[in-house]
Design brief:
alpha/beta, ten-stranded mixed beta sheet, 10 strands, 40% helix, 21% strand
């Protein structure tokens, strides 16, 4: 049973991410938990001037959250009734990152799905501040869905890698299951001026092949000094439907995410983006 965690801020982008997740996992038995963390709404409210008002705001905000979550549940039942899927909703007084991490730890979720941007929807940036924090710090695979991204079966998946990381079987199994459902091809893109791999890189490449059996694996090496440019060009030239990257120390994704400011990120993706955290989990 796949366990999927989905935060929402009730925006159009968030609803689009929910609908994408429901479609993407339509062939699997899944438990979905859709939750809204509302502490920031309460603390940032203009009327908050006393402890008594705080408690009143908490109550009203939770009621509104519960009502909005009920609307989402009703909408899902209308657009995609699926006997393989079970849904729960939750309103929680806390911050998005803390609550997401606690839920992942307590209930051992396989993946978190969210929009690249929420209500703010600043089109000049690739990831909104909440999404960026989730990508950096939540300890499970994170699938982010760009605005206006309609569902398209992930037939061609791009996986940029330098083959230096000892990948985790659990997260590769998630990728394997997903690709088998759609008979996908995985394109491994190695960006380097050296064509010959080290022994460590060869071993990690062999491990990928072992963990992804019966899947079409395509291996490419490209000489380029700018990682994001190479990724963006490959996506455009090869009809890629999903981008997969590993978030770990000294990884390609770390180079992309850990910029000094959010708006310097040059990975302007218009397709779903799966970040695997490469962490040891039960």
């Amino acid at each position: 049973m796949r366990k999927i965690l989905i935060p929402t801020d009730f925006s159009k982008n968030a609803m689009n991410a929910i609908q994408y997740a429901v479609e993407l996992f339509k062939y699997e038995k899944c438990e979905f938990l859709i939750f809204h963390a509302y502490a920031d709404e309460v603390y940032d409210h203009n009327a908050l001037v006393s402890r008594e008002i705080l408690e009143d705001l908490k109550t009203k905000t939770q009621e509104n959250s519960d009502n909005e979550l009920a609307k989402i549940r009703s909408h899902i039942d209308q657009i995609s009734p699926n006997p393989r899927h079970q849904y729960e909703t939750m309103s929680v007084f806390g911050t998005l990152i803390d609550e997401a991490n606690d839920l992942v730890d307590d209930q051992n979720f396989d993946i978190l799905v969210m929009a690249t941007r929420g209500k703010t929807d600043d089109r000049e940036i690739t990831f909104g501040s909440n999404t960026l924090q989730v990508l950096k710090y939540v300890k499970c695979p994170v699938l982010v869905i760009p605005e206006d991204c309609s569902y398209d079966p992930p037939k061609n998946i791009l996986f940029p890698t330098d083959y230096m990381l000892p990948y985790k079987r659990r997260e590769l199994k998630l990728l394997s299951t997903l690709t088998k459902s759609f008979r996908s091809s995985i394109h491994f893109l190695h960006i380097s001026k050296y064509k010959k791999l080290s022994i460590r890189q060869e071993d990690n490449k062999d491990f990928l092949k072992e963990c992804l059996p019966d899947i079409e694996l395509l291996f490419h090496t490209q000489e380029d000094t700018d990682i994001t440019t190479a990724i963006n060009e490959y996506i455009e030239q090869n009809n890629i439907n999903m981008l997969v990257m590993i978030n770990s120390r000294h990884s390609y994704l770390e180079c992309v995410l850990y910029q000094s400011t959010i708006d310097k990120i040059g990975l302007h993706i218009k397709i779903p983006f799966l970040a695997m955290q490469n962490l040891q989990r039960n």
